[in-house]
Amino acid sequence: MSVSDTNALAGRKPIISYRLWLSGMVDEGVARSLFLAGLMVVSVMVGVLFFDIQQEGENLAPVIEGDIPPNILIGSIDSLSLTITDEEMAGLALEVSLDGMGITDEPNSDGILEIDISQLGVGSHSIKVVATDSLGQESRWTAAFMIEYPDEGYTVIVVSANEVSVQQGNSSSVSGVLVHQSMDTCELEWSDGNISEFSLNLPFDDEGRFELGFSNVQENLTISILGTCGTWVDSSELEVFNITVMEPEPEPEPVRGCTDPEANNYDETAEEDDGSCEYDEPEPTRGCTDPEANNYDETAEEDDGSCEYDEEPEPVVVTGSEEWWDLTLLCDDTDGGFGGGVDDYNTSDFDNHVCDVSYVIEDGNITISTNGLPNHDFHSGPGCCASGQDSTWIIPLEPTNDSMCNPSASSDGCTMAPERGAIAFAVNGVAIYGPEDGPGGDAVAGQEGAYEEDRQNVWLGLCHGHSGPGGEYHYHADANCVHWHPEGEQTWLNYSMESSRTVTEHSPIIGFALDGYPIYGFVGWDDEGGVAEMTSSYRLKDGETGYNGIDDYEYVAGLGDLDSCNGHYAATPDWPEGIYHYHSTWENGEGGIGFPYFINCYRGELSSGGDDDPCAGHGETWGPGIGPPPEGCNPGPPPGQSTEGLSLIALPYEIIPPGGGSIIAMLAMAVIMIRGLASAEGALDRVGTTRGYRPTPE
Questions:
Q1: Cα torsion angle, 77, 83, 89, 92, sign
Q2: Which of 53-62, 77-86, 194-203 is most confident?
Q3: Residue whose C-alpha is closest to residue 534's, from 519, 549, 515, 548
Q4: Cα–Cα distance, 610 to 615 (Å, whole number)
């Protein structure tokens, strides 16, 4: 032993000494009591531990029980019951699924789980239940079952015979009995041919008896009767009856001969006259019996179809007569030729507008009254929608040249047509407007892409027309569609301005200027009498586009066929001796755009308007085709396109425009372009040069 170990031991009390000391502190009885008490505590702890282990061993997994029938008639059972038991139901977790879909039904206090199957249809179904107790012990239970229709038996039709014979003209019937265990579910149908093509209900009584009668049977009949019954599963039976008509015995042919006792060959045995009667009277004299014929024979007793007549000359319609005006004004076409009315393509429904024009001739003038609606389908454009007007046009029957006006040289001294508003009227009563629109741009040039209009929403539809805020429909160019007629399957969307520019014959009159001179279409007669498209003598100034309207154009004498007013003196179909007249123009003499499209000034004298009336041609509101009036005229509301009535525009794809007039107008314009009711296929290759125009059908 080392010194350190010795020292360590020296610091402790020896064990034996400790025990002796203990025995000295307590007597032997106290030590025994303490030992017994400790033994009892240890025994209790061991018992509790053993009880817990025993209890844990008896906590079993959940038990799932259920008696599910494999086959169930539909509607016979509304729910299925399962019993779930466990030592600790409160801590039980359930996952229940029906046909793979989880359900949230919970068991009641007795552990009974009701699963609703009332909504299940016919077919295979399955239930799955997973129960997990608080110790994580899991039990699974599955069951499959089939829901079936009940057996309802078959539908039967009992008949005595399927073949029936009947004398022609007599009555007949077919009958039988419908049999099924659920008669309240049955119905009978019949047809005189294929049951799938046409059928009628056939009544029957409570016992299923039915009868179908036919009177005055003239031909063979095939009658099909179909019975269909069943609550869950339909069953049917088809019976076919053939009714054969037997022709009656033929009656003996009557004795034919002459039945007239006055005839030479009268036959008293004849029962029917055969037209053979003969008489001693002479044959009647045959010839022309019409006194109006050239070869009338007054001795003729019987006409032999030989009458001869002079050929009547074609009636000559005198220009300016009432008959001529009846033929020139065209609103009657809408009453019969186009189905009773015309349609505004910017509305959702067929509008059934009808053009109305009447006139009175007196005191050397003709007064024309119109509702301003065209004789053809049209587009209102962004200013939707066109409405009937109360317009009157008064023009002289014999126009007089303005002595101060020499349009061949220039428009100086001539009464200028308004830049905006009405300058003339078409033969259907529709107003013809000046070339400018809204704040002053050339509406037609802008439509054809010469410049981008950024001041207002302007769009010209079919026939280069649209309506202003006041609902007045008007043309800015073309207007030749007043003479176009849809053929075959065509609609007005098939109209093409190119057809009016075909150089084959002189164009008809499309309207009248306010001085009384007529306006013809694109084609006229040149100085040599040949057929040619008439061209304007106006062109765009260098660097201009039409954005500033009339101010952007200049007249160049001899550039085209027409003068500064857009007319010339020449023969026409209506005035073969010659008359001053205007033409609608689409091109100038250089192939550029044909400003002013109708007229720029008046060759004839006006009773009023022009310089005498600074407000002439202007409406009471601003907008497309009207624009702001001159100083001193009624200003109307602030500038901008009217949006009143845009709710009537047929917006495809259920587009609802947001608030704001400009946004609505832009959306309406976009919708109209989407519909493709009349868009310009070719605008301008370059400023002032047209590629041509052709509306695009929808």
A1: negative
A2: 77-86
A3: 519
A4: 8
Pairing of strands 436-437, 441-442: antiparallel
How far is it, in rounded angstroms, from Cα 419 to Cα 442? 9
Per-residue pLDDT tens digits for 418-448: 998 899 999 999 999 999 877 779 999 998 9
- pLDDT tens figures, 10-51: 444 343 333 333 334 445 555 666 666 667 666 656 554 544
Buried b / exposed e over 472-510, threshold 16 CB at 10 Å, is: bbbbbbbbbbbbbeeeeeeebbebbbeebbeeeebbbbb
Number of other CB atoms surrounding residue 433 within 10 Å: 30
Structure tokens at 587: 């091109």
Residue pointed to by tokens 């029936």 = 164
Q: C-alpha distances in angstroms, 446 versus 77, 118, 476, 687?
A: 77, 71, 12, 11
Q: Is 152 helix (H, G, I), strand (E, B) or coil?
A: coil
- Write down how long the chain is: 698
Q: Where are the domains of the chain?
A: 15-52, 63-148, 156-246, 254-306, 322-686
Is the Cα dihedral 397, 399, 400, 402 positive or negative? positive
Structure tokens at 230: 């069943």
Which H, E and C letters describe 153-194, residue by residue? Answer: CCCEEECCCCEEEEECCCCEEEEEEEECCCHHHCEEEEECCC
Q: How many CB atoms lie within 10 A of CB 204?
A: 18
More confident residue, 327 or 251: 327
Partnered with residue 191 across adjacent β-strands are: 224
Q: Tokens in use for 691? A: 């590629």
Which CATH architecture describes the domain 63-148? Answer: Sandwich (2.60)
The candidate with the shortest Cα–Cα distance to 388, out of 446, 445, 431, 345, is 431
DSSP 387-412: ----EEEEEESS--B-TT--TTT-ST
* 679 within 8 A of 695, measured Cβ to Cβ: yes
pTM, two decimal places: 0.50
d(CA 422, CA 432): 6
Cis peptide before 596 (omega within 30 of 0): yes
Query: Per the structure block, which two tokens stand in for 299?
Result: 């001795």
Count of beta carbons in the 10 Å neighbourhood of residue 356 = 18
Question: Over the chain, what is the mean pLDDT?
Answer: 80
> Are the beta carbons of 692 and 401 closer than 8 angstroms?
no
Tokens of 213: 């009668």
Residue 632: which pLDDT band, with cuts at 50, 70 and 90? low
Collect all residues with Cβ–Cβ distance below 8 Å to 62 and sequence separation of at least 6.
84, 85, 86, 92, 131, 132, 133, 137, 139
User: How far apart are alpha carbons 626 and 436 in whole angstroms?
Assistant: 8
- Mapped onto helix, strand or coil, the DSSP state of residue 480 is helix
pLDDT digits (tens, 9 = 90+) for 396-412: 999 999 999 999 999 99
Calculated CA dihedral for residues 540, 542, 544, 548, nearest 10 degrees: -70
Specify the 3-state DSSP secondary structure of 665: helix
State residue 28's pLDDT score.
56
Please give the share of the chain, as a percent, with pLDDT higher than 70: 78
Q: Give, in words, the CATH class of 156-246.
A: mainly beta
The helix (H) or strand (E) run that includes residue 28 is: helix 28-58
**Antiparallel, parallel or unpaired: β 473-475 and 431-433:** parallel
Token pair, residue 69, equals: 């029938």
Give the Å distances, CA to CA, from 181 to 148, 184, 504. 18, 9, 83
Alpha-carbon distance 592 to 164, whole Å? 85
